[in-house]
Amino acid sequence: MKKYHAIVIGAGQSGMPLAKKISAKGLSVALIEKRALGGTCINDGCSPTKTMAASARIAHLVGRAGDFGVNVKDFSVDQKAVRDRKNHIVELFRGGATKGLQKAENLDIIMGEGVFQADKTLLVKKPGREDLALEADKYFINTGSAPNIPPIEGLKDCPYLDSTSIMELEETPKHLIVLGGGYIGLEFGQMFKRFGSKVTIMDMASRLVPREDSDVCEEISAIFKEEQIDTKFNIAVKKVSFANGKIMVSYDDKAGKGSISGSHLLVATGRKPSSEGLGLETIGVKLAGSGHIVVDDNFETSVPGIYALGDVAGSPPFTHMAYHDAHIAFNRIFEGNKSLSAKGRLVPYCVFIDPQLARVGWNEQQAKERGIPYETGKFWMKHSGRALETDETRGFFKVLVDPESKQILGATILSMDGGEIMAVIQMAMVGGVPYDQIQHLPIAHPTLAESLNNLMGQVKRTNK
What we know:
Helices cover 31% and strands 25% of the residues. The chain is globular, with a radius of gyration of 24 Å. The chain has 13 helices and 22 strands.
């Protein structure tokens, strides 16, 4: 049995950087991965979906070419070519990640499935080969999450798609039904509408993006309506069936019973932590009711010496937050730096619909729930010089500020390149820059960022 200083289970966006950091200290590390290096981000999430979204945006812009004085007679979407381009980018990123790991000293990459044994050793099951028994002083679990498939009658007997398999299509669906109006459903819904599919999004909630402010929902709904994406809310799906090459979804809503048929069905009803099959119950690691691994400030589980990071530990489900988990964990555990903590950290995120939806800090909905006093400002993209020049005038900038300190409490950016603008505001928040200083800051013209001047000039008291 080989022993390591640390064993990392899962080569995702916490596992890979953490393994390299630990090995760089001269400590021996085994990195266990059962499927593909890079985790969800590189293989199933950020990299492939945003690559495909870029293809969809090109299709959208070509369709709008006449608006810019460019005449395009005909064009078509080659779904197989879109998929192949996506695969090329995934292989490029995965190859880069693999080379980076292979260069690290003291680091063994082991492909297989890790399962804890009663004596707290790890058995690595390797298909077609002899299992390996390993042990370590410290174990780090970074197994991420997987699509959550609801127990809908008939679903398991239908050829449904999830957020991974839909990216392998070689044909453009005639009518794509999307179960789930969350961020994943919205990204794929708009993407395939632009590829040429008829799209219907169905959700049990009363509106799109319920975690965002109502005005954000209204603007996104208007954008989707403009792009002829059908949305249905307050839907309770009762049954799914498949016959004669069509999928039928039967549901209940406020009007009673209904049904809809389509050529393809995407199940985008959230994700669940990948905590099963690790043998955690054998060694007594505590799980939350959601299936997430319970951890403390050091990311340590209920069993000393066993840690968990990223999605599986209930951290915000974003690549950058998983990477930040690794940074915090390494510094707290191996460097003794307890000043770094996951508590109270800003959680920026960006949804890659078009225009992008990006947010950091509080929104109005959250501020009201917590009784936080705030002032707010909003600036519409239709008044932005840069947006007008590029004919990308949908959406708005919105900011919340503290009326006394003038510090920025949060911002929602719904605009082209919204994630880039959100990052600027995040830096201002971290740096303690008051909003009125940004209002009068000379920002290069003509850029989208200069609209931050106008945004901060719109701040006024809305909550007392």
